[in-house]
């Protein structure tokens, strides 16, 4: 940029004044046929877009410069926005030919990652959420707003709840108050594109005023969010940001919904990541969503993601989804017809949002009309079906007849994308437009008719109408007939054998034909704008249709999924039991080589007899798959889907926790073991009586004895906890099998293997009883480890087994427990009286696991002192 003291060119002066208003945005400055960027913006743009960075002299100052042709905006803009840039598009606001001074320019759109309406930036099957987070005194508020669909959601809760929602909704941009920038970045670093707003935006009265003004209400009670103070502040900040980014036409954002935490299954961020619901660490990995999403429409794809993020806890709602799915599976012809009609639909939710924001083009209006027409047979199919719930969904679909009829009357079926191309408005709609078109495009017919008329009136048999650049249209009369020329004709030119005249009618016609094309453009634009404004009355009805179609699409998708993959209907009930017969992992079974069957497994858990299953077995035997598939089957069942099993009885689960596999968080300075302990602590602090807990290889991030001790203590804690949470505990510490002898609700299972002479065959079948070996050396051999290493490992293993027998370790663990239990019988012991008082005065309900371990340590020290004395 030009420095002070240097003379700025008029162009750079104009640029600098506009850039000063948008200091945080990358400014695309229209100069002629190019969008240019200058200075720092040019450096960033060149790097992101891979375009040439040049320098030029501006008022004696060297300035970096990078630009691209204006017609390439749709290619380059998405790249900038996806790289996290906020892009201000500065256009020429007047025709350069009409001004002698510098062209007037101004920002016409500010596009940010979370506020995009351009199809090139949006992904059709995903929401593009702008998120605002508010740090309250006790709780955090959060709001999600998708300006491309009009969806607006809010919630509040503790940090874990907000964290879970961020993982589930995966916003494109997060807004935070500058005051809490450090707090936010400490937790999330650069996980999301973020923008930091001034503190005053996050004020309750300002948020209330912003929301009430937008919704034209006097209070937020009607939306059921009036008690969510922090959520309202976050929602107000999101709405404020839209006005800041030049988005003012927002009629499609006509409601705000609460994300009711109590209605959906709780999964923390580790669980969402571990179960690979939407993302997978592998490059070519397949997620659960990839496997289960059989929806056809973009609206259905977005809703399926939401259902996966928020599985239900109410058996009645689950049953409703199941019934439609079961009905559609049985009605193959109906299902095919429904799918056929859904295929005809465009993204009506985003199209009607474009109507609200005034960004829709003529071709998209035709697409909307055609989609609304395709909904009619879908509506009839649903109404006439023999399923009450599906029929009710069909009855709620609006036919939007007046809207469809008006579009049909006003627009050509082959309307262009750009209204300026012309021929968008249908013939017969506007008399004035038809006349202008007749003039502009049917001139020959008009002139022939005029000629015919004049020949009859004058009696001159051979008149000719032509035009030239000097005096426009004229009538040519041969000299032999010039005495018949009427008085009103004006002579313009005399030739050797003829004379040329102009008439009043010709002059009028000429004026008309010259202005006709320009007028046609203006009139078509006016008529189209009127149509778009009129269409706004239908925003609510079309949005409702989009929601209903999305629902039918998802349920039809569930039916297709179940038919294609042999899923069965689970029995979801209010009990606390979980029984899965021949369950399969929905993702792994799709990855198997052709012809290789998936080894299905049974799992039963309850709170009375088999609360915690200790699964032992070698690495690679399939322990993790059994854990994950149990969680995924529960998840699918509570989404309302059928499940990969021959039968399943599922008592509603309210929380799913997983601690699967080891992952470092080096960037945060945390070791694998620290991450593991953090995740496990989060589980132990949040379990409930309906929780499902899946722990895989707990304690393996530290030394063997440490690991066994921690794993044992955690299993004991889960068994003794009043919630009796259903738990699958996979481990390679065979010593933990001893726990089943002492703890009545802990049962041992192992993933069976078949030992051959020099090898081991993984059968992947879960069978009762503990496992003796880990077969780690066999796995090393399978991985192609050199024989020298394998032989040496076998020798070392034999030595270690001799000197540190696992029986010795488990008997020590058992002794530690027996010692504690036996000493309680000596009730006359004053030390025991002291311990008894210590325990009685401990408030278990408020005790954290760490405090509990410390208290236990304290009691242990008291006992050790007595023993030494």
Account of the 3D structure:
This protein has 869 residues and is of the alpha/beta class. The protein folds into six domains: 10-111, MutS, DNA mismatch repair protein, domain I (3-Layer(aba) Sandwich), CATH 3.40.1170.10; 130-263, MutS, connector domain (Nucleotidyltransferase, domain 5); 288-411 and 531-565, MutS, DNA mismatch repair protein, Chain A, domain 3; 431-529, Orthogonal Bundle (MutS, DNA mismatch repair protein, Chain A, domain 3); 571-820, Rossmann fold (3-Layer(aba) Sandwich), CATH 3.40.50; 824-868. The strands form five sheets. A seven-stranded mixed beta sheet has the order 13-23-24-25-21-26-27, sandwiched between helices. The chain has a six-stranded mixed beta sheet with strand order 3-4-2-1-5-6, with helices on both faces. Helix 14 (362-384) runs antiparallel to helix 15 (388-396) and helix 14 (362-384) packs antiparallel against helix 16 (401-410). The protein starts with 9 loop residues before the first helix and ends with a helix. Mean pLDDT is 85; it is low at 1-5, 663-669 and 820-825.
Would you kindly provide a brief summary of this structure?
The protein has 30 helices and 27 strands.
Characteristics:
6 domains, MutS, DNA mismatch repair protein, Chain A, domain 3, elongated, alpha/beta, disordered N terminus, 869 residues, 27 strands, 30 helices, Nucleotidyltransferase, domain 5, 6-stranded mixed sheet, MutS, DNA mismatch repair protein, domain I
């Amino acid at each position: 940029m030009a420095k002070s003291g240097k003379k700025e060119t008029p162009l750079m002066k104009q640029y600098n004044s506009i850039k000063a208003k948008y200091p945080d945005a990358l400014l695309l400055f229209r100069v002629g046929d190019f969008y240019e960027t200058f200075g720092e913006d040019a450096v960033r743009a060149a790097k992101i877009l891979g375009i040439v960075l040049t320098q030029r002299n501006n008022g004696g100052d060297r300035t970096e410069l990078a630009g691209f042709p204006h017609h390439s905006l749709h290619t380059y803009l998405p790249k900038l926005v996806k790289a996290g840039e906020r892009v201000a598009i500065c256009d020429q606001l007047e025709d350069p030919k009409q001004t002698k001074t510098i062209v007037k320019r101004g920002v016409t759109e500010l596009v940010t990652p979370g506020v995009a309406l351009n199809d090139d930036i949006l992904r059709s099957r995903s929401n593009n959420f702008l998120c605002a987070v508010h740090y309250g005194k006790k709780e955090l508020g959060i709001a999600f707003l998708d300006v491309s669909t009009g969806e607006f959601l809010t919630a509040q809760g503790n940090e874990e709840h907000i964290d879970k929602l961020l993982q589930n909704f995966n916003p494109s941009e997060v807004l935070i108050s500058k005051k809490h920038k450090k707090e936010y970045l400490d937790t999330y670093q650069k996980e999301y594109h973020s923008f930091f707003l001034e503190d005053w935006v996050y004020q309750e009265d300002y948020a209330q005023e912003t929301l009430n003004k937008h919704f034209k209400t006097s209070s937020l009670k009607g939306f059921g969010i009036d008690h969510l103070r922090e959520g309202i502040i976050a929602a107000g900040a999101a709405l404020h940001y839209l006005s800041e980014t030049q988005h003012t036409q927002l009629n499609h954002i006509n409601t705000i919904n609460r994300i009711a935490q109590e209605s959906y299954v709780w999964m923390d961020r580790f669980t969402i990541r571990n179960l690979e619901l939407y993302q997978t660490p592998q490059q070519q990995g397949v997620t659960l969503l990839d496997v289960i999403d059989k929806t056809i429409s973009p609206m259905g794809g977005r809703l399926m993601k939401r259902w996966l993020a928020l599985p239900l806890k109410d058996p009645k709602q689950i049953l409703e989804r199941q019934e439609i799915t079961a009905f559609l599976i049985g009605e193959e012809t109906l299902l095919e017809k429904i799918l056929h009609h859904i295929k005809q639909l465009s993204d009506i939710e985003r199209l009607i949002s474009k109507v609200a924001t005034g960004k829709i083009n003529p071709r998209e209006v035709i697409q909307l009309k055609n989609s609304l027409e395709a909904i009619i047979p879908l509506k009839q199919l649903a109404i006439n079906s023999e399923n009450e719930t599906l029929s009710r969904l069909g009855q709620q679909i609006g036919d939007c007849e007046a809207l469809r009829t008006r579009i049909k009357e006003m627009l050509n079926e082959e309307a262009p994308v750009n209204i300026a191309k012309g021929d968008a408005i249908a013939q017969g709609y506007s008399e004035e437009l038809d006349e202008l078109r007749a003039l502009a495009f049917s001139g020959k017919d008009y002139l022939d008719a005029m000629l015919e008329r004049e020949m009859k009136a004058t009696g001159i048999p051979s008149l000719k109408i032509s035009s030239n650049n000097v005096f426009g249209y004229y009538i040519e009369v041969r000299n032999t007939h010039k005495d018949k020329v009427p008085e009103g004709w004006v002579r313009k030119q005399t030739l050797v054998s003829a004379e040329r005249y102009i008439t009043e009618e010709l002059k009028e016609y000429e004026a008309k034909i010259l202005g006709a094309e320009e007028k046609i453009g203006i009139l078509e634009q006016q008529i189209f704008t009127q149509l778009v404004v009129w269409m706004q009355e239908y925003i609510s009805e079309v949005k409702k249709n989009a929601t209903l179609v999305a629902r039918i699409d998802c349920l039809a998708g569930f039916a297709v999924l179940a038919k294609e993959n042999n899923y069965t209907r689970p029995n979801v009930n209010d009990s606390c039991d979980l029984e899965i017969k021949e369950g399969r992992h929905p993702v792994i079974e799709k990855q198997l080589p052709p012809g290789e069957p998936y080894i299905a497994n049974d799992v039963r858990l309850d709170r009375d007899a088999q609360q915690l299953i200790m699964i032992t077995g070698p690495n690679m035997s399939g322990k993790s798959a059994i854990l994950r598939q149990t969680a995924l089957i529960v998840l699918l069942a509570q989404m309302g889907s059928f499940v990969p099993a021959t039968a399943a009885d599922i008592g509603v689960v309210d929380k799913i926790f997983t601690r699967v596999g080891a992952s470092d968080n080096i960037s945060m300075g945390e070791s694998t073991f620290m991450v593991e302990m953090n995740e496990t602590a989060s589980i132990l602090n949040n379990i409930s009586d309906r929780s499902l807990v899946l722990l895989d290889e707990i304690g393996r991030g530290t030394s063997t004895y440490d690991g066994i001790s921690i794993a044992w203590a955690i299993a004991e804690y889960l068994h003794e906890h009043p919630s009796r949470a259903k738990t699958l505990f996979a481990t390679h510490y065979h010593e933990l099998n001893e726990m089943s002898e002492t703890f009545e609700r802990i049962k041992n299972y192992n993933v069976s293997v078949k030992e051959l002479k020099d090898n081991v065959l993984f059968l992947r079948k879960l069978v009762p009883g503990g496992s003796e070996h880990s077969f780690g050396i066999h796995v090393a051999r399978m991985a192609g480890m050199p024989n020298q290493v394998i032989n040496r490992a076998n020798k070392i293993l034999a030595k270690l087994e001799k000197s540190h027998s696992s029986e010795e370790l488990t008997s020590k663990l058992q002794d530690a427990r027996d010692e504690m239990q036996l000493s309680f019988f000596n009730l006359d012991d004053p030390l025991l009286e002291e311990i008894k008082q210590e325990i009685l005065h401990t408030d278990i309900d408020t005790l954290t696991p760490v405090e509990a371990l410390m208290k236990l340590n304290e009691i242990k020290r008291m006992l050790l002192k007595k023993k030494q004395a």
